[in-house]
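Honest question from a wet-lab person: if I give you the sequences of every part of a complex, can you actually get the arrangement of the whole thing, not just the pieces? Trying it with mine:
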Amino acid sequence: MHAEQIIDDELAGLDRLDTADEQRSSFAFRVWSALWPKMAAIGLVLAIWQFVVWREWKKIYVLPSPAMVWERLVDDIGTVELWKAVAATMRRAVLGFVISVVIGGTVGLAVTASRRVRVAIGSLITGLQTMPSIAWFPLAILLFGLTETAISFVVVLGAAPSIANGVIGGIDSVPPLLRRVGRSMGARSVALYRDFVVPAAMPSVVSGLKQGWAFAWRSLMAGELLVVIPGTQTIGTRLQFARELSDAEGVIASMAIILVIGILVDSLVFSRLERHVLRRRGLGADRA
Amino acid sequence: MTLVHEPTAEAATNPRPIETVVELSNVSKRHGSARSGVVALDGVSLTVQRGEFVCLVGASGCGKTTLLSLIAGLDQPTSGELRVAGRTALMFQESALLPWRTAVQNVELALKLGGVPRRQRRSEALEFLRLVHLSDFADKSPHELSGGMRQRVALARALAQRADILLMDEPFGALDAITRDVLHDELERVVHERKLTVLFVTHNVREASRLGDRIVLLSSHPGRVVAGFDVPVPRPRRIESPEVSAIAATVTERLREEVRRHAR
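Yes, you can. This is the full assembly:
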């Protein structure tokens, strides 16, 4: 046989041996195995709640049963007011989050790019991250009054440090080999960041975004309870009004809506993005 | 198409124009400060001719990686003169592919940085992958490829950098023996086809004897050139052939002598 042909066959043989096809389980099976643990957990919580109600630990108008809250939720979902409130809250959340991404991302890049900036504000960012954002509201209200700006101010202070830390952590942990590769391929400054450093930092950046979203959502809820702007219906004001009317069903229904939105945004946006980033790199378990 | 290179003995009777593409004279490199720094390379002189396959062999701490960084232009020598005529591309022990890009996208990135317009990149990148027989795996991610396949993608990427001088830093060190043997054949063929000059760093003396036209032995702490060996074995070679083994034995003996020197 020709020498050329021998090498071809040997390479092809090795390649075939090295890349055995893996079995993938069926779609239905994957959905089921992702779903049942969640269902079981929710079922358990509802069962405990119902048990406490049956024991009559509190009066029924203070702690209503799951069925009563469910009825109230179904009623609320049929009203325009609820959807207007959700829209107003989501608009604030998205706006605050976008501003946080811009500020957090810029600050994060600045810290990794300059030693002086790092010394100056590196530990301050972590400090800000540990500060409960509700502690900012008195100052925000003094500075901006009961306005949208006051809410956005606190949302950004809550979310931006997490996002900045995600960027910093990601860029700091880029393997030096990757920078060496980039430089050896002729990439300098902008190209080095664009094609090597920033993509390599993505897993950490995405978990920073995810955490930033959680902080933004929490700060926003605190803000909507404290900064009530007359005439604006939001999820926070609904929760507040329900409490003032001693409407326990309304309180729990509003809380359920806050929880569900938080989970939906996380699973539809951030967890999905995270899985995508990790799976491309062959990292992370195939969890749903 | 034949795999037989001109053997070194024939070169004397049938001379081809000799052109030096890499020349180091008395190059030293110190990492860190002048007082407390570590001397990685101490007065290294080395010339490599166009089309030559030179293997650099040495124990740990011989400054092999530093030497390649200097030639690649990633670092400057502390003293001495360095001249490189041609485009270099580095290959590493780990393939150092970007894990978020598929095989073909990794090659495309080299073309992008080389200024190739976007429309042409994919077809050109596929052409380079074909050269290393990986057309079927173009859209796989690095984590879906074996170590040997990743190194071939890295080779395709190096070729896409339009390099005529390949700087290889223990590229096959992490591979199993049979994959390594086949990749030796593959590398030899690509180098011959594309008329490349190669500087190949390894601590595996047999590998050096299998691949090199010439073997340069480096000492450790600091790195110095201590000996050079010609490998007058005609190609194609086999790593298990008696001629290759004989050269490897000579080099190994000299290398062990060098290692023993550090015992005292």
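Two things worth pointing out. Chain A has two domains: 27-57, 65-280. The radius of gyration of chain A is 25 Å.
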